[in-house]
Amino acid sequence: MFWKFRICRLIPVLILTVYGGAAAFAQMSPGTTEIDALKTRYKRPLAIPFPDNAPYSPQLATLGKKLFFDPRLSGAKNLNCASCHNPSFGFEAPVDRAVGAANKKLGRHAPTALNMAWVKPLFWDGRAATLEDQAAGPITAPAEMNGKFADIVRTLNDIDEYRSWFATLFPGEGISRKTILTAIATYERTIVSGWSPFDRWVDGDEKAISESAKRGFVLFNGKAGCAGCHSGWNFTDNKFHDIGTVTEDMGRAKLEPNNPLAKHAFKTPGLRDLTRRAPFTHDGSQKDLESIIAFYASGGVERSSRSPLIRPFSISEQETADLVAFLKSLTAEKTETPMPVLPN
Ligand code: HEC
Ligand code: HEC
Fold first, then answer.
1. Residue 182: how many CB atoms within 10 A of its CB?
2. Closest residue (by CA) to atom 34 of ligand 2?
3. In a designed cystine with 270, which of 72, 73, 234, 312 is the match (CB 3.0 to 4.6 A)?
4. What's the rounded Cα separation, in Å, for the pair 251 and 240?
C-alpha cells in the first residue's frame, strides 16, 4: 500500500552513490546527458497514493475539506486548520511561530500541509505515524485548537447537512472521532502542489526555466549538497537531520534518545511552492531563501549531532542567485483553492 514511500527512500541513496562526488559535477553543465539522467529522479508521480483503509472518493475529500476549513472544530470556534495551514502561504502561516487558542506563540513553525500523501511520519519530529493520527493533535491541543471530540461530534450532529454526509459516507458509523479524522486526512492527501516551471523542464521543455535556474539545479545536486536530503520529486527524504541551526529544541531526540544524530534533528521539509512559505525551518528563524543558503554555506553550528552531509562550502553571489532561481522554479504557476461553503 505504501510502496511509493519505499521507492522514495531509495532515491537519496542512489543520488549519493551515483552523483555524490562533487568532482563529477564540476564538469557538468546544463543541457548534458548527465543532467537528463538526473532530471528523471525528480519526475512527478501521476497518482496520489491512498491507503487501503481510506480509499479516495471525491465526496469524502469534499467533506474533509469542509472540516479542514471549519472553525467549529476548535474549542472557541475561532480556529480552523487553515488558520495555520493557509493555502495562500503554501499551506503554512506567514509567521515564525503561529498563535493558537492560548494566544501564545507555538513552540514550532507550522510546516506545509502540501504533498502530505507522500510524507511519513508526520510532524517536525515524526511523532505521528499517519495523517489521521496527526490531525487529532492540533484539534485537541490546548495551545492549538483546544477542541474536545465529544463537543465536536455533538456540534456536527446538530447540523443536518453534516449528519447526512457522514451517514452516507460512513454507514453505521456516522460522526465520530475516527470518521472526522479519516475525512480530514483524505482531503489532505489531495493537497498536491501544482505543476511548476521545473516540472515542465523535467518533462522536456528546455525554455521552461532560466539558464540561471539550470545552473542552480546543478549546484543543488552537486557542490551545495542539497540533494543528499532534499531528494525526489517532493524534495525530501522524509528523514531527520540536524542541519546545525542555533536551537534549544531537541527535535527527534525526544523519540530516539539513544541516537546521537537525533539531537536537534528535524524532518527534511519538501521544497515545493517555497516562495509562498517564508519564514523557514522548524522555528521560522530563516527569513528568506538567500539567508538559508548563506546558513548552509557556513555549515551552521559544529556539534556531534550535526549531519555529516552538512559541511561549509564556498558560494559566490552569482551561485547564490542561481540556487535561488532554481528553488523559485519549484513554485507552481497556477494554484487555486476555492473556499468551501460550510453547512449551517
Ligand atoms: C495554531 C496553529 C495550527 C493549527 C490550528 C493547526 N496546525 Fe497543523 N501544525 C502546526 C504546527 C506548529 C505544526 C508542527 C508541530 C510539530 O512538528 O511539533 C503542525 C504540523 C502539522 C502537520 C505535519 C506536517 C509534516 O510535515 O509533518 C500536518 C499534516 C498538519 N499540521 C495538519 C493540520 C490539520 C489537519 C489541522 C486541523 C485539524 C491543523 N494542522 C491545525 C500548527 C497548526
Ligand atoms: C543533511 C540534510 C540536508 C541537507 C544536506 C540540506 N538540507 Fe535543507 N533542510 C533539511 C532539514 C532537516 C531541514 C529542517 C531543519 C530545521 O528545521 O531545523 C531543512 C530545511 C530547509 C529549508 C526550509 C524549508 C521549510 O519548509 O522551512 C530549505 C529552503 C532548505 N532546507 C533548502 C536546502 C538547500 C538549498 C540545501 C543545499 C544548500 C539544503 N537544504 C541542504 C535537511 C537538509
1. 23
2. 226
3. 234
4. 9
Whose cell is 523559485? That residue is: 328
**CA dihedral of residues 84, 86, 90, 93 (deg, nearest 10):** -40
Instruction: Determine if ligand 1 sits within 6 Å of the CB of residue 183.
Output: no
CB atoms within 10 A of CB 216: 27
Question: Is the bond into 12 cis (omega within 30 degrees of 0)?
Answer: no
Q: What confidence tens digit (pLDDT) does each residue in 185-208 have?
A: 999 999 999 999 999 999 999 999
Q: Work out which ligand 1 atom sits closest to the CA atom of 139.
A: 38
**pLDDT 10s digits, 59-115:** 999 999 999 999 999 999 999 999 999 999 999 999 999 999 999 999 999 999 999
Cis omega before residue 45 (within 30°)? no
* Per-residue pLDDT reduced to its tens digit, 246-304: 999 999 999 999 999 999 999 999 999 999 999 999 999 999 999 999 999 999 999 99
The answer to whether residues 310 and 296 touch, using CB atoms and an 8 Å cutoff, is yes
Q: Which ligand is nearest to the CA of 113?
A: 1
Contacts of 18 (CB under 8 A, 6+ apart): none
Atom of ligand 2 nearest to the CA of 280: 27
| Cβ contact 85:115 at 8 Å | no
Please report, rounded to a whole number, the percentage of residues in the chain having pLDDT higher than 70. 91
Rounded Cα gap, residues 210 and 329, in angstroms: 9
pLDDT for 29: 59
Nearest to 116 by CA among 23, 186, 20: 186
Residues 106, 69 contacting (CB under 8 angstroms): no
